Amino acid sequence: MSILVTGGAGFIGSNFVLDWLAQSDETLINLDALTYAGNLDTLKSLQNNPNHIFVQGDIGDAPLISQLLTQYQPRAVVNFAAESHVDRSIHGPTDFIQTNIVGTFQLLENTRRYWEALPTEQKSAFRLLHVSTDEVYGSLANDAAPFTEQHPYEPNSPYSASKAASDHLVRAWHHTYGLPVLTTNCSNNYGPYHFPEKLIPLVILNALAGKPLPIYGDGLQIRDWLYVKDHCSAIRRVLAAGRLGETYNIGGWNEKPNIEVVQTICSILDELKPKADGSSYAAQISYITDRPGHDRRYAIDARKIERELGWKPDETFSSGIRKTILWYLENQAWVANVSSGAYRDWVNKQYAGTP
Ligand code: NAD
Ligand code: TYD
């Protein structure tokens, strides 16, 4: 038995791969294009693990997908591969359209051909799980109820629009061709191996480096934070027991305004790694120009996955953020490795002209 995971060298995919191989004897084929966001250093503990087969390649490469499916005969495909950063999608949407929409289409179409030819028993056991985001639902007013699975799709950024399009393709491949799919829409993740272009790792690393902690706009935008290991356990649960064609919202019940997240990180760092001059890291907070089209609030109603599949997150925000900060303090070599030339070019472009 095997499973094919795409995007397994990125933040969530690598956490999923590491957790999966720690718990299962099944072979896992990890297909990742190794864009700037993919990092083999994250997977180095698997170097001698015969159950991990890494393949560098693109989900949009139809012959490659078809060859991998035929060669390894997986019982499931889990699709994490995507361009994932909203700010990058604003600077240049092309890669988002290519990977998130065209790539997902190629993955679906080739998986469908493989699935249609499977013997009856394997055909009925097969699953394709598509990992998506709460951002497809758009922005919530502060007094609105959290997103349920019935919430209309109202994506506002090139990133969320491309993910929304991919979700629609997945849905259509189920309704039209009967492909046995599952879709998960998750809130903001944080935890180990998070690429430092995203808010939480960026703030931890900038704080330690004595750099400004950039807050877009008024800092009162709200995100619903989920520890990445909880996301991975939810995906395993949906893969094992989710109802075909259904979508499951995954969230941490941890709504926080950005400024509160940043202040929490500063006060934990003040305790764990006090500054020599006795000042707080919070003194480095710097308000900068807002992101264009910035969604005000995301919040997930995660009652369906709890009711149907018995899943609940293990971590609270305060336990998860402390673990995350400790991980970054203890893994400076990983940080140095990913903070390479390409990363520095991005930071210079995105934060140019800010104090
Ligand atoms: P990430 O950017 O850290 O990793 C994406 C991975 O996909 C990288 O390893 C990259 O090399 C790979 N990749 C990119 N294009 C590819 C292609 N064409 N073919 C093969 N591999 C390719 O992203 P992440 O934060 O780990 O997110 C993973 C998935 O989860 C995405 O689909 C994202 O939309 C979704 N998601 C993310 C969050 C979050 O908070 N990070 C929340 C909800 C959903
Ligand atoms: P991010 O981690 O990019 O995730 P997303 O945009 O997918 O929610 O950003 C989380 C929140 O933090 C979002 O409201 C934008 C904000 N943010 C800042 O205020 N400053 C920053 O430098 C970054 C990267 C994000």
Descriptors:
single chain; 355 residues; alpha/beta; Rossmann fold; two-stranded parallel sheet; 15% strand; globular; binds nicotinamide-adenine-dinucleotide; binds thymidine-5'-diphosphate
Task: Describe the SSE topology.
Layout (H helix, E strand, L loop, with lengths): L1 E5 L4 H13 L3 E6 L19 E5 L5 H11 L3 E4 L6 H6 L2 H23 L3 H6 L1 E7 L24 H20 L3 E6 L2 E2 L8 H10 L4 E4 L5 E3 L1 E2 H14 L5 E4 L4 E3 H15 L12 E4 L14 H7 L7 H14 L1 H7 L2 H10 L5
Parallel strand pairs: 1-2, 1-4, 2-3, 4-5, 5-6, 6-11, 7-10, 8-13
Antiparallel strand pairs: 9-12
The protein binds nicotinamide-adenine-dinucleotide and thymidine-5'-diphosphate (TYD).
Describe the fold and architecture:
The chain has 13 helices and 13 strands. The N and C termini lie far apart (54 Å). Helix 1 crosses helix 8 (228-241) and helix 7 runs parallel beside helix 9. It has a domain at 2-190 and 227-253 and 293-314: NAD(P)-binding Rossmann-like Domain (Rossmann fold, 3-Layer(aba) Sandwich), CATH 3.40.50. With 355 residues, the protein is of the alpha/beta class. The structure holds nicotinamide-adenine-dinucleotide and thymidine-5'-diphosphate.
